[in-house]
Every structure is written in C-alpha cells, then in structure tokens.
Amino acid sequence: MASVAGEGRSRVLVIGGTGYIGRFIVAASAREGHPTAVLVRDAAPADPAKAAVLQGFRDAGVTIVKRFFPSEYGNDVDRNHAVEPAKTVFGGKAHIRRAIEAEGIPYTYVSSNFFAGRFLRSLAQIGVTEPPTEKVLIMGDGNVKGIFAAEEDVGTYTIKAVDDPRTLNKILYLRPPSNTLSHNELVSLWEKKLGKTLERVYLPEDELLKKIRAPLNVALAISHSVWLKGDHTNFEIDPSFGVEATQLYPDVPYITVDEYLNRFL
Amino acid sequence: MASVAGEGRSRVLVIGGTGYIGRFIVAASAREGHPTAVLVRDAAPADPAKAAVLQGFRDAGVTIVKRFFPSEYGNDVDRNHAVEPAKTVFGGKAHIRRAIEAEGIPYTYVSSNFFAGRFLRSLAQIGVTEPPTEKVLIMGDGNVKGIFAAEEDVGTYTIKAVDDPRTLNKILYLRPPSNTLSHNELVSLWEKKLGKTLERVYLPEDELLKKIRAPLNVALAISHSVWLKGDHTNFEIDPSFGVEATQLYPDVPYITVDEYLNRFL
Fold this sequence. Notes:
2 copies of one chain form a homodimer. Helix content of chain A is 38%, strand content 16%. Chain A is α/β, with parallel strands linked by helices. In chain A, the strands form 4 sheets. Chain A has a 3-stranded parallel sheet with strand order 1-2-3, with helices on one face. Chains A, B: Belongs to the NmrA-type oxidoreductase family. Isoflavone reductase subfamily. Chains A, B: It comes from Triticum turgidum subsp. durum (Durum wheat).
C-alpha cells in the first residue's frame, strides 16, 4: 500500500523516529504518502508510550528498521596494536561504536580484514599497482598470518547478517580458512601460479616504522598492524562479542585467495 | 516487485552505496531479495562508471535516496551569538553541516526555532513546567522577537521539503508570521486569555549569564541567544542559502501561538 500511495514521492527514512520531533516527521511523512521507514532502538519497547508510538507507525504503514551497520570493513578497531596514522583512523571508528552503544542502537560491526581487490593485486605490497614478477617486498619476517576477503563476499556476508539474530550486537568477523595466510605463504602461492621464484626482500620493523612516519602513510600503518602485530589473527573470537562468518554461513561459496589470484595471470 | 520479493526480509538502506565496498553490499542486498535503498550524492552523475553503477542498481529494483536532513530543528547553527554551553551544541551541528558539504551530499537543514511544545507551556521560562498565573520571568527587556513552531508543523514542513527542488542544499527556516513575537507580546497574549495581568520580572543580561554558567545550562544559553541576541530574527534569509517555509507552502494551515496557548487554559 505504501508503494502505491507513494508513487512519485521519495522514500523517507527517519533515524530517531520515535524521538521528540522524529515522531512528528514520521507522522507527516506517512500522511503525505511517502514510503516511510524508521530506525528504532527497540522494535518491542517495554515503555507503553513508546510501544503506542510504534504501533501507530505500523498502522500508518511505516516500516520499522532495526539495526545499524556502521562502515568499518577492515581490522577490528577495538582489538589492534596499530601505530599512527592507522591508530587515529581505527580510533575514530571505535568512537562511533561507543556512540552507537551509548544510544542503545542495535548494531552489527563487520570486521572483514583485508579487501582482496585492494591487497591481492599487489601481493600485499603498498604503493604497487601490478602483481610482482621479479621481486616482492615483505614486511617483517613474513610468517604472521593475515586474512583476505573478496569484496563480493563482504557484501554477501554483510547482507546475510542483516536479519540474523546471531549477529545482533556482535562483531561479524570474516575469517575464511583458505584465505588466512602469511605473506610468505601468499608469495609461494603466487610463485606456483607464475611458475617462477621471486626475490623476497624483507623489511625489518624499525625501517617500516620510519617509512610509515615520513610522510604519514595509513596503508603502511595498517599493514604493520597486520603483518607485524598480527592483528587479524592474534585473538580468539569470544561468543560474548563476536561470531565468524564462514561458520555462520557455511553454504556461502566464498572466493579463495587461490582463485582470486588467477584474475591477475 | 521489491516488496513482494522482500517479504520477510528487512528493508536495507546503504549510505555510500556507490562507494568501494558499498556497491557490493547493495548488489548482495538486492540479490537476496531485500527491499534496498541507497543514499547517493548525485542521482545523475557525469562519471560514466558511477552512472553505470546507479543504472545497475535501478535495474535491480534498488531505490535511490537523494537527500539528507540532519537532525537540527532549532536555531540556525551557522548564524548565532550563543554563549556556552549552547555554543558547543550549535558548533557540533555546524561541524556535521561542514562534513555533509565536504562530502557533496545533497541536504536540507531545517531551522525551526523554538518548539512550541517545549517553550510555550512555560511561556518561554526555563525550569518551569506549568503556564504562569501570577508572575513571569522575562530575559532582557522582553522586546526582542523570537519564533515558535508547533511540532506537528515542523513535521509537515520538513516532509514538504523532501521532494522540493527549492529546498535542495538550502536552509529551510520556519518563520510563521503569527508566531514571531517578543517575550512581552507573548505574555500579553497569555494575559488576555487569562483575563488578568501578571507580574513581569525582568532578568538583566549579566544576571542571566551568571545563571547560565553555574551550573552550565544549555536551555538558558539558547534562551539568551534568542531573547538577548535576537538570533531567531536578527538576519535576513538570503536566497543564496535559505528559504522560508510559510512562503514556500502558503497552503499549510500552521498552528498559531494564539491557538497553541488555548491548550493550556
């Protein structure tokens, strides 16, 4: 009914739609025939006044939206040992987490680790745009494990989580087992596909830290967090705060690093 | 079609849906049968790659959402002479304005001035919950004009603005002529309804500033901005940045202060 009544009128989403002024905006929107949705903290509030407001919305054909996914999609911003400038970037996202929690807004945080499209083409080197064929720069000793996820799969797992009670107020981690590998293992996989051995140049931590600082380089600092500090894999996912995507959705045929690398041959 | 396919699946709104990871989330959402909407900066981008992404969304039945209304609904946060703590509150909202503009997100800011429900019951006194029948406290000389708008009308004008090209990237001011009056005029109106004269106690600015500071009182500081500095009415609305609601929508029968006060008799 809303979509017929709403022909030609924009869809309206009200964040805070049961609040002091939000409820009047929602009422006007529904009355004027806009397909209307509200983001609410609690779709079944104990407070009878709030419950009555929500029932009024439902009677008016308003859609109740129940969960917020802030834009994160990288490291877990609450569990890392990042240096600047990544520290500040992660800190900003953690600050948004705290605001969401303080407001009691239902959430899912998605920690998808390395984007395959950004980090695999260069074989996890920063400032490189093509896959290496001669030489590859490895940060640290190359034995710390990082995690990659194809962007398509980040989309799929995120959307799977939308209506899933198991991901409510949890961090959804993407840790596809086949995509959890060290920089050395990644290089070996690529060497096998190339049919040749690359020269591996190892960058010690102190030199990496110097490169991160002058000028400040956020991609290098994130790489430091992952390859030197192990921040993709150095903690267990406790059910009190998190769930793992490939375990929740074993039927999703995720793209493996092995398959993804074939795109660059 | 989206609503049938989406039965039982939550509505999904993606902010930044044409971005690096957003587009994959939108694609997964539409594919999984969620009624899906995206907030975009530009619904007809010149960049052919962005245009192709948007066309793909439309082909998948995705709704394009085009404008953001941040939560403001008070003073114009860019045009005021507020003292602390109101200065910081307004500054926070101005900061959000700058972020919206920097990102190129289409917007409308609604400056609705005083909420009638919050400010009329007390006859614009702070910390008072019932209409005065003997004595009324007036800040300053009581001759500076402020503006009131009923919450219902704030909702109505806001929603009128949603699809109106005249309010795109503009501040929508609510300045209903019948609701623009000084504190003295407001008291006189109430006295006429009561059929008696109230004792008017005038609070000079220096005493008001002391009351604002100990302890910090945001409602008093906003009142200072309005009744001492005249921030509801001390500037013209230039078409380059703003439009006025009752002029844009003369057919909306707004609730006057005179009518609103009858609720308290």
